[in-house]
Every structure is written in structure tokens, then in C-alpha cells.
């Protein structure tokens, strides 16, 4: 306070959104440690929230007919197994009160693995002519994305609840995300 470098979270929530402030406060801050919170850090998490919206729009716009939930398909793919490992890591981090690690792992997976790699690799498959490959990839993307939304919910409750309301009904057991089963 004496340096005059205080950031008012209410002002930042009005400017960048409450979810961006929440994740900026948690990310990179271990329990009992001081936090370097800056407007740039909050702005970066606002960009992450925008990335989440863009991913959602892409996934929902590319699936003409939503496939059955992946659990009903005969085989699990490497993409799904990779995601399941991330989900276990994030769950372990949350259960061990390492919230900063959970948010960092989610951020890295969603932005750098899912958006940058998996979605980009999926574009030619989804626009291709192999209907079976298109349906399988769409099912994988929907499975991974709906479960990413579940994992992000404790940190970004407002955006994830809104996205959940747009998810295909066969991927939702509950109307509200806050009471949905946690990914296993």
C-alpha cells in the first residue's frame, strides 16, 4: 500500500471480467506466498477466457450432428487418454490444495495442447470426406472439451457455466455444471 501499486479487484473485474481476475489471483501463486498481480497478468487471463470462447465456437460449429458420447464408442483414443492423464493431474492438484498448479496445468493444456495442436490437427479431418474419421474426431473433441469445462469450472465459474448451457444435451447429465460429475 505504501508504494501505491494496489490493484482493486473490483475495478479489474469490471474491466476484464471476474473469471480473469479469479484465475490471475490463483495462477502462479502457491499457498502462503506473495503474489505479483498486475493488470497485464489479469489481461492475459482475459485473453485465455476469449480463447475458451473461440474453442467453444469452433467445436460447436464444426459438429453438424453431435456424435454419441465417447464412452459409448468401442475404443479410447490417444487424445482421450492424454486428456484423462491431465484430468487426473489437475484433480490431484486440487485435492492437495495446489490450486496454482491446477490452473497452470489447465492453462497449458487448453491453450498450447488442445487449441494449438489438437484443434489445428482436427481441422483437415473435420473438413475431409471420411465420415467415420469426422465423427470419431468430433466425439473426441466434444468429450475432451466438455471435461475441460468441468475442470475449469472451479476457477472460471461464469464462463464455464454459460458454455455448459450450450453443450450438446447428450454430454450433460445435469442442467447446471456446478452439480455435474467431476471427470474421472
Folded structure, characterized:
The structure is a single chain. This protein has 184 residues and is an all-alpha fold. The protein is 65% helix and 0% strand. The chain contains seven helices and no strands. The N and C termini lie far apart (43 Å).
Q: In short, what is this structure?
A:
By secondary structure, this protein is mainly alpha-helical.
- Main sheet overview: none
Helix percent band:
55-70%
The portion of residues forming beta strands comes to: under 5%
What distance separates the N and C termini? 43 Å
Q: Point out poorly predicted stretches.
A: none
DSSP helical segment count: 7
Structural class label = mainly alpha
Along the chain, the helix and strand elements come as: HHHHHHH
Radius of gyration: 18 Å
Shape: globular
Report the average pLDDT across residues: 84
Number of distinct beta strands? 0
Give the helices and strands, then pairings:
Layout: H1 9-16, H2 18-26, H3 39-62, H4 78-95, H5 99-126, H6 131-152, H7 157-166
Helix pairs in contact: 1-2, 2-3, 3-5, 3-6, 4-5, 4-6, 5-6, 6-7
Features:
184 residues; mainly alpha; 65% helix; globular
Amino acid at each position: 500500500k505504501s508504494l501505491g501499486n494496489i490493484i482493486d479487484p473490483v475495478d479489474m473485474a469490471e474491466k476484464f471480467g471476474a473469471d480473469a481476475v479469479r484465475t490471475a489471483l490463483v495462477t502462479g501463486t502457491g499457498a502462503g506466498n506473495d503474489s505479483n498481480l498486475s493488470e497485464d497478468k489479469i489481461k492475459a487471463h482475459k485473453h485465455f477466457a476469449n480463447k475458451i470462447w473461440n474453442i467453444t465456437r469452433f467445436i460447436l460449429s464444426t459438429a453438424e450432428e453431435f456424435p454419441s458420447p465417447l464412452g459409448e464408442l468401442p475404443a479410447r483414443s490417444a487424445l482421450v487418454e492424454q486428456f484423462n492423464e491431465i484430468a487426473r493431474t489437475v484433480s490431484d492438484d486440487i485435492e492437495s490444495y495446489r490450486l496454482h498448479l491446477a490452473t497452470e496445468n489447465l492453462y497449458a493444456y487448453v491453450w498450447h495442447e488442445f487449441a494449438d495442436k489438437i484443434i489445428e490437427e482436427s481441422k483437415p479431418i473435420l473438413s475431409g470426406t471420411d465420415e467415420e474419421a469426422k465423427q470419431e474426431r468430433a466425439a473426441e473433441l466434444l468429450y475432451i472439451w466438455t471435461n475441460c469445462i468441468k475442470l475449469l469450472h472451479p476457477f472460471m465459474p461464469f464462463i464455464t457455466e454459460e458454455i455448459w448451457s450450450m453443450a450438446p444435451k447428450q454430454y450433460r447429465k445435469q442442467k447446471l455444471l456446478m452439480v455435474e460429475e467431476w471427470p474421472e
